[in-house]
């Protein structure tokens, strides 16, 4: 029997895709950066089937590429162009096995779409706080494999912090059962944490136990005009304290981000009468109703007195709250419509975000006069999407040829500031060389030793994270 | 030069201890379970000195035992009896390098005593939430190496969740610099998480960046008499929700725990007029002042109506709050005074704690009539100290000979319930065989591969966690 026939014997012929038209959507990614090739896409519907598929591929020496919703931004789920690999899709692993509001846990298979998990939590009067742009199509196994971030990290942590247990098929096809609902377990090395963020290079996640939280019953949202960029820091720290650590979003919006949104995205309006250079979307939420809005008003009142804020609007309705979020969320879309953009997903210590933005802005403006810097995002956790929009009259293609040059300028500064060149998007294929450039040799060496210990034949998602 | 002379050349002669009287306190542990031996205790005062010491030992083939405050309960910091090892003490690595209330971070060396870090955080109007019995003498490097738990885990997580960055001297003497203040960093495998909880077997932690939180400004504490053990679960879940996830302690106290305390520990009093089988110490705290006590009263009022609680007292003063905590904290001391006790540090899913307690109680009572079961502790995170006090008239030594038999009974049930045989104390030497007995072969195998990848010569804290 051919390998394809053997795969079909495991998952059924209808779940081995080899037709080039049907394969196509599994071989490209979001931004169109890569066009891979594959022997087949295989769609197992149980952990046992995944294990059999992996065993077969391992014994036949076939590289394997785990794929969830294929919404990643670094090409981590796309096979290489050589066409030797099998893509193992988790899209049929979609059972929610349990929701337990007493334990505050949810047990689900890796192919569950994030928004479905959010919904299942809400139906049990709980919150699953992971929230990001692709939530309607990304799958939880991919979120875990990339340790996804999003807008709630400052209060609830990264995906890593939301995972209690994992089930993983190892590169040799053995099933590792770490599917525990335990809040405490000190019995040896943290194997689970190795799989989280490993982008499928150490094994294929098939199921997980997630932490739930009490569902918020009061939300208070403000759009704040800052006196300057630096004012964001004390304002955020005060809001954390005054709200009982209930700041669940603290997003930076620069003037140009708002302007591009107003130009290109319907429904984006300036909440203020006069223009402001730097604005903050500040959201508090709590399952304890009452008092949160008062706390927000007090923080803002004090911020006016101390000269940190010059204007602010508190959302009076869900509609107004949505308007504020639309301003923030419109930025990437507006940038796309404005022409070419060169992106950075960087992090530094929260207290150093303003310094990083100022230094990087000066450096890229010096290298390319007319370039428009649009730094926005998760100020509360130190993660800035330091995105660059082409000069108004420039040629898009010519602008984009300078991607690596701009990356080098920005990443040099970020690394010198002890920051991260990939805060929440991961490495995938996109940043493999960048990682080699910036990671100390000792880190790369330890990572290579771990990869070898788990996947000695290098068949599990080869070429991702590590060369 | 002898190895001792070479060590003295690195750290200074006064910091190489070889005299047997001076060595003694480094070679025993808390409970007196082990009496190790060592070539010397070495006390470096910088990361560079640690690195030199480790390099020397590595090249001379000398086993190394990292030691912090030596307060661990499983013998993880004690050398073996063969006397070949050098103990590397972190007690001179006591600098607090930075406290940043804007970042909510604290950077400290591994030898800092936990209570000093709590104090440094408080002086910056912040909270470092790790809190446990030994906080006046344990050192943060040991807390991190054992992923210490304590009483605040249900709100703030284990030590693992409180660490942003680490600096580690690897088994070959190289310094791994992961001393970052980043809340987001997705650039490869989670090396940091491997060192956390590895009990010094993969490297020696020399410094860390810790997360701080806003300092609580309101604390509301209740001692609650439950209608039965099962009532603890819905009461805890409701308190989480009603308080805006501000339950920072939820500790179970059984009748016998209170009675032993009243018998043996000064200041322990029953807060209730009539006796109750099961009680809960419930504490809410928040940096947002106002409303927390109201929330607590509402939860308790509802609990009376629904028959979950039969009596409750809310602390009206700091003194009364301390009285409540004294009841809880007196239990281990009271047990010691009552005679022999056989201990278990187990965890199951929070929702299964009552079932676990009932099943294990029946089983040990059947095996030893008259045995007194004293299950207490961190109900909110599923971690029970399932401790057994000898029958009143039994011989202590004879009782203690049945330690392993009782362990087997309890651990069999806990493992069958998908629980943990070491929730917060770790493995050390004490539970190495127990780990081999219960951990699946695949887990032990992966752990051994990691150990080999990091420490191929097996010189770093040999015999701990893994055989």
What are its keywords?
4 domains; FAD binding (chains A, B); Uridine Diphospho-n-acetylenolpyruvylglucosamine Reductase, domain 3; Uridine Diphospho-n-acetylenolpyruvylglucosamine Reductase, domain 2; Alpha-Beta Plaits; five-stranded antiparallel beta sheet; FAD-bd_PCMH_sub2 (chains A, B); flavoprotein (chains A, B); alpha+beta; homodimer; 467 residues; globular; catalytic activity (chains A, B)
The CATH topology of the largest domain in chain A corresponds to Uridine Diphospho-n-acetylenolpyruvylglucosamine Reductase, domain 3
CATH architecture of the largest domain in chain A: 2-Layer Sandwich
Oligomer: homodimer
Rg of chain A, rounded, reads 23 Å
Q: What shape does the CA trace of chain A take?
A: globular
Low-confidence stretches of chain A: none
What is the helix content of chain A? 25-40%
Task: Return the CATH class of the largest domain in chain A.
Answer: Alpha Beta
- Which protein chains are joined by the largest interface, and how many residues does each one contribute? A-B, 93 and 91 residues
Q: Structural class, judged by helices and strands of chain A?
A: alpha+beta
What's the number of domains of chain A?
Answer: 4
So how many helices of chain A?
17
Spatial order of the strands forming the largest sheet of chain A: 5-6-10-8-9
